[in-house]
Amino acid sequence: MSIFNLDGWCKLSDEAQAISLKNIRFHLNDGDEKLLAQAEVHLQITGEKEVHIPIDQARLKLVLPHECGPIRDCRLRVYLDSNTKRGRFNLTGYRISDGSLIYTSAVTIEKVYPIHPR
């Protein structure tokens, strides 16, 4: 199991500049980590831009900053770094109060699941 404390952002609209949110905390279990590694391989093979993995918010033990409020539609967004072609992911969701996009900084999948096929 991995525990993350990441900076996050709130984007009120596509045109708006993101507003910083500090310390979004969540847990990923071994199964989640394996899904991330599989998604990375899928992107490397297919050339798709990104994939979204729906994830149960309760299982994440998600803790959001007070100013954020609750979110819905939690997903792990997986994409390939444009330089290294290695997988990266971030947590995304939408604030219930106004539908704003909430997302975390990205993490390299290899740091979470170091033993996976290339």
TrEMBL record:
Keyword annotations from UniProtKB, A to Z: Plasmid
Protein origin, superkingdom: Bacteria
Name the record gives this protein: Uncharacterized protein
Upper lineage: Bacteria, Pseudomonadati, Pseudomonadota, Gammaproteobacteria, Pseudomonadales
